[in-house]
Specification:
With 190 residues, this protein is α/β, with parallel strands linked by helices. 51% of the residues lie in helices and 13% in strands.
Length: 190
């Protein structure tokens, strides 16, 4: 078996703008340990696998690059750490999750990861959100991915539905409603 956990750690660290030093401090290991893992000159001890996955808000299967046959992949974009944590806690047992705080990353992650669904919070500059959302809808490899908009403002829902959003959820949301809306969209996938 060819384990490439170092590649995943480096990818997640760079994707989240985390330094080796920050990760080492969180785990209570040396910077050299992180460097060895990332250069494939060693592997983290088993007790570090779960904390690393939790740190990056991914599943251990994702971290270990195990194929998650039968599990749908969801890309989540929300600028608030608390919201990302809530979404992660609600969905982690059922789905493979990729999480980002920055709308600028959504298109890139969607192209690379090819998620089955995108949960996208509408925040910051509305023109930036529309630009990213529109790019998702016109890019050949991402245009068919359903996008559920997360918003505090009802006014955003009609605008994004008209632009091609699959659905919307007004925040704060009920976890059972979130799961039901996700399942409804995923019925049409694959």
């Amino acid at each position: 078996m060819n384990i490439k956990i170092g590649d995943k750690i480096r990818e997640l660290r760079k994707r989240n703008n985390i330094t080796q030093e920050q990760l080492a401090e969180f785990l209570g290991v040396t910077n050299q340990a992180i460097s060895k893992w990332e250069s494939e000159n060693g592997y983290p001890d088993i007790e570090y696998i779960s904390p690393i996955a939790d740190f990056f808000k991914v599943t251990t299967d994702y971290l270990l690059d195990h194929a998650q046959k039968g599990r749908y992949k969801i890309l989540i974009c929300d600028d608030k750490q608390m919201n990302r944590d809530i979404l992660y806690d609600i969905l982690k047992s059922e789905y493979e999750l990729i999480i980002t705080e920055n709308t600028q990353n959504v298109l890139e992650y969607a192209i690379i990861e090819q998620p089955d669904l995108i949960l996208m919070d509408i925040f910051q500059s509305e023109s930036e959100n529309i630009e990213i959302f529109s790019a998702l809808k016109i890019t050949e490899t991402t245009c068919a991915i359903p996008v559920i908009i997360l918003t505090r403002y009802f006014e955003h829902s009609a605008k994004y539905l008209n632009l091609g959003a699959a659905d919307y959820i007004i925040k704060p949301f009920d976890p059972s409603e979130l799961k039901a809306r996700i399942k409804a969209q995923l019925r049409n996938v694959k």
